[in-house]
Design brief:
The chain is built from ten helices and five strands. The protein is mainly α.
Length: 218
Amino acid sequence: MYVLVPDDPVFFAKFESLEEPLLRHLYLLHSAGLEESDDERIIADAYDSWVQVLLKLPLWSQWHATDTSAEPAPGEPAGYTLHSAGGTQLTTLHPIEVTAADLGHLTACLDLFAAAGRTRRAVPGRADAEADAEAGADRPEREDALVDVFRRVMEVLLLPQPQRLLDTLRQVTRQGRTGSVTLPAEEETEYRHYCEDIVTILSSGDTFAYRSHRALYL
């Protein structure tokens, strides 16, 4: 399946921030010295899938390019700019192909973290209390923040794609086009609704963050 991902540093930063907690949870499970548990397998699969998606994100390709003059490698986003019907430059959207298995692994991990948070709040055990004391009083808040970021990232990845807009941009990338691509009025409307959904998912709840994020798309 295809996901439309924008050249959006907010999304990229939130997605990239998931690496540390995924690895931290894996380390804690592994250091317990038990045989591989279901939780460890779920998180390990999610980390592998996280890497697979990360390598396809447009900002990863841009920030880690060793030769900016080189042609895009196969599978990398085409270097085009996107414009409205009136000629205004828009934040570029890139169709990236992700597998249902990778999305399933990430969703299963999110469900695991969310369930652990609900259990911790409902029945705080001694192990949790000791871990909180070692990590600091803000550990539960940090865990809840992780789940919130994870949830927002997955909502963007699972956001339904406007089919006409997706078809247009897939054709652009298949042809390896560079230069300017202008959206017809109908697809520009789809684009603006889709991008507004992305901003709302990622930045709702913080007025300043929402306004700053939305300004990227004006």
